[in-house]
Write a structure and sequence with these properties.
heterodimer; A: mainly alpha; B: alpha+beta; four-stranded antiparallel sheet; about 30% helix
Chain lengths: ~325, ~140
């Protein structure tokens, strides 16, 4: 176990969230079963008070778990000097590869689900009758299970990473000629795949921003269209990742043969801002869709268009800002 | 109006990020393949025909770059491990042994200018002789 301020904080937050979500998950499931049943006035007041307490605490825990995703990488970054052979986060992930890969896969899913739940929650809070309360409680109990797994995973990983472990780092994995990120575009575009891949990403990204802008301008917030927009944003994310690994990361690092994104984050720290904005932008498109899908119920139906407009404005801003940052960086370099 | 306020808030942040981010990160002792810190005793240097020099943290990184650069290489120098002196790759003895010198690429290839030093290492670390990995460039 490597002890530093970040790993101790990570364990502390892991233990705290594990206990809180266990309690919150069970409580929200019980409340979900009871909500909507006929009660005495005293019973109803008790149920409402209890729900608000559970929601208040869970909102704080979930906000902490939102921050946990970037914090996880900051903690892994802090371990680099203690792991022999690690020169970036990739090396640290090789100490416990299966658990780390699992957490790297789970964290973005949790981030998306937590964000989706919070958008529903904040929409419901504006109303007087809380029409989304049952859905919120049900989703919260499911989400709690995932957050619990994530928290336990964090604790196990922090305890399991031994100092002085010997690993090999990214160069021997991310730069091999038969890496899938190279062979896939190679089979489509041929040996000079870098330029078409770059152009393809620019086209999909600008198109996505354009579609979001059009939805905002003409106030088109119908579910099938928002669903398609979300799917398109996922496709754009795939192109973003591919073009980052193969084209932009080597260019930004000034290392034309090196394709490691973790190295990019440490050599070009402002690329973290590009990634953060891109992630928030892509997820905002998804959150808009999930809110439209689950948020239309009674009192919220009138509030929904204004609320969706806000979410998609954020998506528009984040995606544009990430694109401008990337573009300026490439031009300045 | 509200949208304008949002942009006014975020634009300075973007400019600050850019101002710091666009400063080039090019420390002198950085490997030209993967950006790792170079330990001078295990470095490899390519002198290119355009007068520039490329430096690598290990024979492994140099070999990976070699395929892309072989047409442009004028001179190839490696470092004698015991003394730290730069020598021409064609004059060096190469040994592959159990000892790892640059852990992040698991480099096990060792370079010596004297045959006696190479033999000592070979016996001590269960090594075996190997051909110059950059033979084509030297020729």
């Amino acid at each position: 176990m490597i002890l530093n301020a970040l790993s101790i904080t990570m364990i502390f937050l892991g233990v705290l969230s594990a206990f809180m979500v266990l309690w919150g998950g069970i409580s929200s499931l019980n409340l979900y079963k009871k909500w909507g049943r006929p009660f005495t006035p005293e019973g109803k007041v008790f149920l409402e008070d209890r729900s608000y307490l559970v929601l208040l605490i869970m909102v704080i825990v979930l906000l902490i778990r939102l921050i946990n995703w970037p914090f996880f990488y900051a903690t892994l970054q802090s371990f680099i000097s203690d792991i022999e052979g690690a020169m970036c986060i990739f090396g640290v992930t090789q100490v416990k590869p299966i658990l780390t890969r699992f957490l790297e896969f789970l964290k973005p899913i949790n981030f998306f689900l937590i964000g989706g739940w919070l958008t529903l929650h904040f929409l419901d809070r504006v109303t007087k009758t809380s029409p989304l309360m049952r859905k919120k409680l049900l989703f919260l109990s499911i989400l709690s299970l995932l957050v619990l797994i994530d928290s336990i995973g964090d604790i196990l990983l922090m305890i399991g990473i031994a100092p002085e472990s010997l690993v090999s780092c990214c160069t021997t994995v991310t730069d091999i000629s038969n890496r899938p990120t190279r062979t896939t575009p190679l089979s489509v575009f041929g040996p000079e795949y870098a330029h078409p891949l770059q152009v393809l990403f620019f086209i999909t990204h600008i198109t996505l921003i354009g579609f979001i802008g059009a939805s905002l301008k003409f106030k088109i917030f119908r579910r099938p269209i928002l669903g398609l927009l979300f799917l398109f944003s996922l496709l754009n994310a795939a192109f973003f990742l591919l073009s980052q690994i193969e084209v932009f990361a080597p260019a930004l690092m000034h290392l034309p043969f090196h394709h490691c994104l973790y190295c990019l984050w440490q050599y070009v720290p402002d690329s973290i801002a590009i990634y953060l904005l891109f992630t928030l932008g892509t997820f905002s498109v998804g959150w808009g869709f999930t809110t439209a899908l689950f948020g239309k119920h009674g009192e919220t139906a009138d509030l929904l268009p204004v609320y969706l407009r806000k979410i998609y404005s954020f998506a528009f801003f984040f995606l544009s800002a990430s694109f401008i940052l990337l573009l300026i960086h490439l031009l300045v370099d | 109006m509200k949208r304008k306020k949002e942009w006014i808030f975020f634009l300075p942040i973007i400019f600050i990020i850019l101002a710091f981010g666009c400063q080039k990160y090019t420390p002198e002792d950085r490997c030209d393949y993967d950006g790792a810190k170079i330990e001078p005793h295990y470095a490899v240097y390519f002198a290119l025909q355009d007068g520039t020099e490329k430096k690598y943290c290990s024979v492994v990184c140099a070999s990976m770059s070699f395929q892309e650069l072989k047409g442009r290489i004028k001179e190839l120098r490696v470092v004698d491990e015991p003394s730290g002196n730069r020598i021409h790759a064609s004059e060096a003895f190469f040994i592959e042994s159990d000892m790892v010198t640059v852990p992040h690429v698991k480099n096990r290839i060792h370079v010596f200018s004297k045959k006696e030093d190479a033999l000592k290492h070979l016996q001590r670390f269960k090594g075996k002789w190997m051909d110059n990995p950059f033979l084509l460039a030297v020729e």
